[in-house]
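INTERNAL TRANSFER SHEET
From: sequence group
To: structure group
Subject: Cyclic nucleotide-binding protein

Please process the attached sequence and return the structure record in the designated field. Keep the field labels unchanged so the import script can parse them.
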Amino acid sequence: MMSGLVEHLRRVEIFSGLSDEELLQLATICKPQRLPPETIIFEEGADGNELMIILHGSVRISINTRLPNGTFSVSTINVLYVGQSFGEMVLLGGATRSATVSTVDTCTLVVIQERDFAMVCERNPRIGYRVMRNMASDLAYKLRSSNLLLRGNIRWQQGELGKQG
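Return from structure group:
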């Protein structure tokens, strides 16, 4: 089981660059969790202290958005699949959840508690360094993407898009 889990962890982006020995150290703190379809894993704004990795299935990431009339609507912003992780922000300081995550179909997740991850990093700082570096790279990409979407939305709202020059 442990070698199979190491293989899964090897394909997780935030663990890129870690050796087999380092992945094995992480595997020892992983807890499997199986969830049925349409299960809310956590809600936007909730406190959290675990990172999750998808072993099987997929999850929907959604946020509450305010409509022009003042009401709120749930908007799906992403769907994640096998090998992808979510909840990483807890590794950066235990912030509240930035989105709601729910299962699309039956899912098997690997759950890593923040305190367990911190203990592994205390014993092996290289693991923490690689994971934080990979997370920084991923967050920079997401920030650039969000900026582009926001600029496009602002231009659209101001009527700039679609104008013929």
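Handover comment: The CA atoms of residues 49 and 115 lie 8 Å apart. The domain at 2-157 is CATH 2.60.120.10 (Jelly Rolls).
Transfer complete.
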